Amino acid sequence: MSVDPVLLLGAALLGGLGLAVGSFLNVVIYRVPQGMSVVRPPSACPGCRTPIAPRDNIPVLSWLLLRGRCRTCGSAISARYPAVEVLNAALWLALAAWAVGPAGIPALLPLLLVLGSAGVALFFIDLEHHRLPDAIVLPLYPVTLVGLVAAGLITGEWPLVPALIGVSAWVTVIGGLWFVSGGRGMGFGDVKLAPVLGATLGWVGVSAAVVALFAAFALGAIVGLALMAARRANRRSALPFGPFLLVGALIGLFAGDVIVDAYLGLMGAA
Ligand SMILES: [Zn+2]
């Protein structure tokens, strides 16, 4: 087996850029819920307020070299920082592998990278603060529109009907649950995120959009039951649903067709 050097170089560049963007996502995750600017002031240690020197701001490496502590005051730096950087880089590589793969759409990759990174930020913010900030979700509307139109112009293919089915399915299910539960089972942030994920997944295929929804609810049920079993939660404690929608979206994208085929095969065999 030989490895294409161009492919290897591309992967190294994308992975490196993914780490750097992940570093910025850490700023987004920390500041956006507090309504702070993500540009100014420069990053500082939350413990001693010392600005972080460039040499201490290298993704993953600095955290490892500093052994997770501030150089000035020694207060602990959360392992979430390197984790977000690695996660974003790994996600970018996985999305690129999908895009250039047999079932992928290379022209969709720029949009997927943006949505993927926004998703990483939203995942951690929703987990901690139980909300999906408008400052991140609303700009995804024009971004998604531009990304899908660009993909259509490049490929000459316009899967508008599946995209609309994706939007309708996501908005109906998530909006419906939000309405029925009076905002307890599902937040309005989830409803606002639904058209973005529904349209992009639907563009890939109806199976991606539908499997993603099912996967989100299955994951939510599994994690909810596991937490109840571990007595970390009861039926009344609210679990943010955004993380499940985002992970479900990835499952739909990567495995939607495989899961639908397997399901239809089972039904056919029964
Ligand atoms: Zn410090």
Short description:
The protein has 270 residues and is mainly alpha-helical. The protein has ten helices and no strands.
Description:
It is a single chain. With 270 residues, the protein is mostly helical. It has two domains: 1-101, no CATH class; 105-270, no CATH class. The protein is 68% helix and 0% strand. The chain has ten helices and no strands. The protein has helices at residues 5-31, 61-65, 80-100, 109-129, 134-137, 140-155, 160-180, 188-204, 206-229, 242-269. The chain is globular, with a radius of gyration of 20 Å. The mean pLDDT is 93. Bound molecules: zinc ion. The site of zinc ion has 8 residues, from loops.
Topology:
Layout: H1 5-31, H2 61-65, H3 80-100, H4 109-129, H5 134-137, H6 140-155, H7 160-180, H8 188-204, H9 206-229, H10 242-269
Helix pairs in contact: 1-3, 1-4, 3-4, 4-6, 6-8, 7-8, 7-9, 8-9, 8-10, 9-10
Bound molecules: zinc ion.
The pLDDT mean sits at 93
Report on the biggest sheet. Answer: none
Low-confidence stretches: none
Distance between the termini: 41 Å
Portion in helices: 55-70%
Number of spatially distinct domains: 2
Task: Supply Rg.
Answer: 20 Å
Which terms summarize this structure?
binds zinc ion, 2 domains, 68% helix, globular, 10 helices, mainly alpha, 270 residues
